Backbone:
């Protein structure tokens, strides 16, 4: 956990190499290293096979990232988020030497989080509207890691979670992709329609007819804009209402299924279990 100032041939850096508790390794998002550096001459960092995920922000200067067969040009205000088990390298430009703040971390659930990030359109390199929020979180993680706080692993987990939330919010911007290439219409009205008419029989064909839109276009663009399919979103609306009725009404499970728009009892049970992991009857009994 020692805060060390490193003077190397090509960079000056301040970093904390962190050793989390076994509890943190098994249960939390945990820190491996956090720090900042200033290049004093062009340099390259190259690694592969690290059981780690890396986030860094370019606070000044410019450089390049090589990752997954692509090269990304980076400048002040750019961020990167990558899986370090894959080979990668990054290097400062020769004339515009960069400064970075970074954090290496891992955890039991990070693979699924990163998969969701990429599924929602997240890229290895992205440019947020404002890097200050990211920079502040890294500074806070640095401060916590260097403290004597006896629950610092919990606090670090909280801050890494906040960082990941920001990454999701800033990097996934379907509105931006809609402004490039062919303009795609907003499907917010379709989403609102599902929320208001979930009790009715709804199919893709019906939605296509209702909104004069090709159902294949609807399927693709809805997922781009909202991160889920039309029918999955409809299932979640219905199950959310069903859970309320299971807890706070005397209706039978079959009646509840009909009330939320699923008229076949067997199908209602299957959809409920797919979303919640248990049957409606088990949910009612537990709650």
Residues:
């Amino acid at each position: 956990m020692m805060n060390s100032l490193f003077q190397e041939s090509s960079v000056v850096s301040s970093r904390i190499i962190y050793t989390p508790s076994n509890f943190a390794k098994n249960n939390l998002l945990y820190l491996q290293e956090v720090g900042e550096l200033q290049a004093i001459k062009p340099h390259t960092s190259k690694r592969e096979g690290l059981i780690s995920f890396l986030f860094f922000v370019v606070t000044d200067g410019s450089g390049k990232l090589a990752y997954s067969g692509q090269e990304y040009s980076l400048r002040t205000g750019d961020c990167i988020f990558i899986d370090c088990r894959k080979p990668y390298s990054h290097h400062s430009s020769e004339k515009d030497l960069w400064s970075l703040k970074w954090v290496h971390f891992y955890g039991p659930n990070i693979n699924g989080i990163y998969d969701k990030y990429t599924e929602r359109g997240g890229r290895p390199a992205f440019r947020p509207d404002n890097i200050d929020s990211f920079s502040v979180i890294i500074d806070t993680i640095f401060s916590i890691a260097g403290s004597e706080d006896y629950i610092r692993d919990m606090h670090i987990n909280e801050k890494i979670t906040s960082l990941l939330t920001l990454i999701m919010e800033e990097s996934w911007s379907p509105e931006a992709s809609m402004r490039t290439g062919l303009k795609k219409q907003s499907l917010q009205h379709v989403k609102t329609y599902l929320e208001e008419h979930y009790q009715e029989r709804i199919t893709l064909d019906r939605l296509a007819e209702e909104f004069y839109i090709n159902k294949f276009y609807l399927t693709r663009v809805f997922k781009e804009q909202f991160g889920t399919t039309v029918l999955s979103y409809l299932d979640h609306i219905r199950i959310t209402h069903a859970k309320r009725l299971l807890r706070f009404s005397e209706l039978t499970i079959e009646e509840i299924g009909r009330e939320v728009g699923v008229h076949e009892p067997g199908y209602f049970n299957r959809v409920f279990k797919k979303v919640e992991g248990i049957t409606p009857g088990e949910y009612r009994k537990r709650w």
Summary: The CA atoms of residues 55 and 81 lie 5 Å apart. The first strand starts at residue 3 and ends at 7.
